[in-house]
Amino acid sequence: MSNKGKVILVLSLLPQYFLIRVLKQYPEYVEAYYSLGIFPIISKLLNTAFKWIPFSVGDLLYSVLIFFILRWAVKNRKRLRTEPKTWGLNVLSFVSVLYFMFHLCWGYNYYRVPLHTTLNLNPKYTTAQLKSVTNKLVFKTNKLHLAITKDSLIRTTLPYTFVELTKMSQAGYTQLEKQYPNFKHDGQNSKKSIFSTPLTYMGFSGYVNPLTLEAQINAIMPLNSMPTTIAHEQAHQLGYAAENEANFIGFLASIHNEDLYFNYAGYKFALRYCLRELSKRDFDAYESTLCTINPGILEDFQEAFEFWSVYKNPMEPLFKEFYSYFLKANNQAKGIESYSYVVALLVDYLEDRIL
Predict the structure, then answer these.
(1) Each residue of 234-267: pLDDT tens digit?
(2) Is 83 helix (H, G, I), strand (E, B) or coil?
(3) Which residues contact 295 (CB under 8 A, 6 or more apart)?
(4) Residues linked to residue 216 through DSSP beta bridges, in sequence order
(5) Closest Cα to residue 109, out of 17, 217, 206, 235?
(6) Which of 58, 62, 59, 81 is nearest to 70 (CA)?
(7) Model pTM greater than 0.85?
(8) Element (H, E) at 265
(9) Rounded to an integer, what distance in angstroms lies between the CA atom of residue 355 and that of residue 227?
(10) Do 29 and 36 meet the contact criterion of CB atoms below 8 Å apart?
(11) What is the pLDDT of residues 108-129, one digit of tens each?
């Protein structure tokens, strides 16, 4: 590309940035014209293009990009000193293209109408409400656990393969769609990530590639953690970019599934988040609640804890801090803490429902 073309690309960063600043003020327009207008068309095209390929195209694309970026950086390292303007032009023009593609394919969803508004949920709750919902979740999760294991002391063992789980999770969204048409999921596109080991060291269970919309799942984490992880990433594929919203939709898809193991995974997932929040607000209530949970469920929690503990390393907090800044830059003011804000949605949704 000529220098003139690169200059145009670099200059386009400014209008792109200001467009986002403007759209941030008008979520209703983002919802109507992008999230429910342009994005479903892009999503359908990308899903049609990549879902039939058995491996992760997005991970492969990242691998190629990383290779060429490193190769270019090594080959042009001297130009940073001898031709800084040309070097900067090349870098910024590349960044401009990626910035545009990220937002066009998926990123504008960060600025859509919040889910609690579209579902008419109250994002504020009291500690008393949290205690009530947590107790209801304990009762429901205990009941499902006992139905599966027939023994409150035994931890669960998921009897499905990864491929079976992706198909079954899709079936959960089919059921959920009957109650919430906006949660219609057009196609199965969840794959084992090539980067599963690096993801584990970084502390992540999966992600959606914004350029291919494939759900990349950490393939080495405990199988018991996969149902809600797959459902969470599928929520991102629907265009719900906020982490708390993807958590909530993943929970809904799991409990609406006809499979007992998915139901258990969904309620256990919600219970874990509510327990964590309860421990911050009322530790005595948290400790007394733990005593009412089936020991087998606590074993399931312990399995996940021990798995992630093995991979803890000094770099993990840095990766999470970087991702937290990324989330803050994309309209999630609490950064990585946004995951935990699912509790507000869970409390309002479950408070008046019989479990």
Answers:
(1) 999 999 999 999 999 999 999 999 999 999 999 9
(2) coil
(3) 152, 153
(4) 191, 207
(5) 235
(6) 62
(7) yes
(8) helix 260-281
(9) 20
(10) no
(11) 999 999 999 999 998 889 999 9
